[in-house]
Structure prediction request, 495 residues.
Amino acid sequence: MLNYVWSFLLLTGLVAGALFGKLDVLVAALLERSKDAVLGIALPLAGTMMLWLGILRVMEKAGLMEVVAKLLSPILRRIFPDVPPTHPAMGAITMNIAANMLGLGNAATPLGLKAMGYLQELNPQKQSATNAMCMFLALNTAGFTLIPMGAIIYLSSGGVKDPYAVIAPTLIATACASITAVLMAKFLQRLPSFRVLPDEVTADAASDGAGKSDATTSTTDAAPAAKPFRLSPMRAILLSIVCALFALGGAMEFSKDFRASVLRATGMEAVISAAEQRAAEAKQRQEVLKAEAAAAAVANPAEASAVTAKATAPADTSEWRKALKSVSVLAIPIVLLVAVVWGLFKGVAVYEEMVEGAKEGFGVALRIMPFLVVMFAALTCFRESGALLLLQSAVRPLLDFIGMPVELLPLAIMRPLSGSGSSGILNEIILHPSSTDTLRYTAAILYGSTETTFYVLAVYFGSVSIRRSRHALAAGLCADTVGMGMAVLLGRLMF
Prediction:
């Protein structure tokens, strides 16, 4: 899925750049953004990652994760009635959700895979997902979290003021998404279209004989043989059209007047000009506000604070908004305090464990560099070519009607598909000069309120060779939709 999305962004950008005469701008931006992905994002990210991973290691060694798991166990017994309370699956599920709540992604994935293995042991139909599996996947895609560290880190690296302000709205959005996931999973499992089907008998299972109880399991657990690639007629036609359009755009490089007349005749020139004017006006507004703040800082520090508040915060100072921001301010210090104090009570060498955990931070930053560079390449082509401006102009009336900023459209599309891809889009929004602080905060809330649904389903179901996911995808996408809607709503209300 990500392969097709990335290819679409890149090829569309190259074709649009060739047709609109922006290949020179596209190439320059492509090289610049590749450098920014490493020097401007990944390396500054390493310091914050080191600190947070050190804290999480202390919490893990002190047994704080197990305490959270015990607190969640009574609730999960009602959500998973098909799982015996004493079965190891319940403990793995609880630990996985607790790790997700605390932002411990590296621990959450192996715990989730372990839970899927236990749930598969309880599954009478090994090729179809059980109700408990679908519920578990829906909760994982809802991504309920106490502290969205990824969103906070990206905001902090981008120089956005008060990055911790997204904690409370993200907590509310993920809570709504989790409730939606539970309700939709309970509702969809009763529909006839999502009923459990009997396993298909494979050729290997039939040859082993009916007397072996694990024959079906062993064959379904085996990885399917890779099929040879065959170019479909539809793919061949689409790729031929792409090449033909790029060739046409390349030919028009030698006749600028012909390109101008084509764009004028098709109406594209007016659309592109209007979109570019809106982007330039937004950039100019940001520069004016920054200049006012800089001038006020020299003349009067108090006035500078007022100008900065005008640029970054809404005028409304209602009590509920102050309370939410206070919760956001206190969340991280409370986690720090509890982790260290609990570790000292349990006799954990907190300093040494913090250092050991921090060692992983730079490795994480190194691992995301290739993803950022590659994703930035496609996004830069799509943005600088003018293709994104055309898409925004086309869907602007619909998104304005529902109150969603059109700039969030790429993030909303990519987030269920890929974590690395959506993080690249989030960084693009945060670092782009035309983005307002309201847009940056809203994008961070949306990023922290949703999960990589397709990735989670592929990894978790693939680990136990489930072929029929039943209603897991539908429930997960419903949770993502609610999370995105709440993110946009809370972003508009708070920022």
Notes: The first helix runs from residue 2 to 20.
